Amino acid sequence: MRRTSLKNEKCPVARSLDVVGDWWTLLIVRDALKGARRFNEFQKSLGCAKNILSTRLRGMVEAGILEVRAASDGGTHSEYHLTASGEQLQVVLVALRQWGEQNLFGHGEPMMVAVDAKKRQRLQRLQLSTNDGRGLGPADIHVEEGAAVVETASTHARKDAARATPKSSAASKRHVRTGKLS
């Protein structure tokens, strides 16, 4: 069966799924976030056929999720590194992970747990919120037509600088610390 392209849809969810909608792609991003760089590292971790992995990696490079670099050890093999766009998928994976933790595991069942790298504490659950910090549930969100707002490198730099600047209000500190989605 031939897959229908969603790349021209108005819906950002549909366009996103056109790029990352198969499980291999998100598992490759997961492994890249854990430090995998080389084809054989991805193949060993995922256990998928080489032709499937090769096709997915090529597609992820074309989509701007991964980039190919010369091997960091000077070897002849290339390495795959996440681009800024690819790194942004970490939030998607954390949301998917937290959904799976809550809905697919029984109490006390062994599972892989995501923790803060410095303090080894579990991540706080992601929550949707407004810009002023008010929590949102499914009934609070309405989708309507609008125009895309594409952030450039300079807007990312300004946001990063603003995040690095100490905030005075407790609500602002909580928003930065918890990494809530807004």
Task: Tell me what the structure shows.
This protein is mainly alpha-helical. It has three domains: 72 residues, Arc Repressor Mutant, subunit A, CATH 1.10.10; 37 residues, no CATH class; 56 residues, no CATH class. It is built from eight helices and two strands, in the order ααααββαααα. The protein is globular, with a radius of gyration of 19 Å.
Protein traits:
two-stranded antiparallel ribbon, 2 strands, disordered C terminus, 8 helices, 5% strand, 182 residues, 3 domains, mainly alpha
The separation of the N and C termini measures 37 Å
Number of helices: 8
Largest sheet: 2 strands, antiparallel
- How does the helix and strand content classify structurally? mainly alpha
Question: What's the CATH H-level homologous superfamily of the largest domain?
Answer: Winged helix-like DNA-binding domain superfamily/Winged helix DNA-binding domain
Helices and strands, in order, run as HHHHEEHHHH
What is the CATH C level class of the largest domain, in words? Mainly Alpha
Could you tell me the strand content as a percent range?
Answer: 5-15%
Physical arrangement of strands within the biggest beta sheet: 1-2
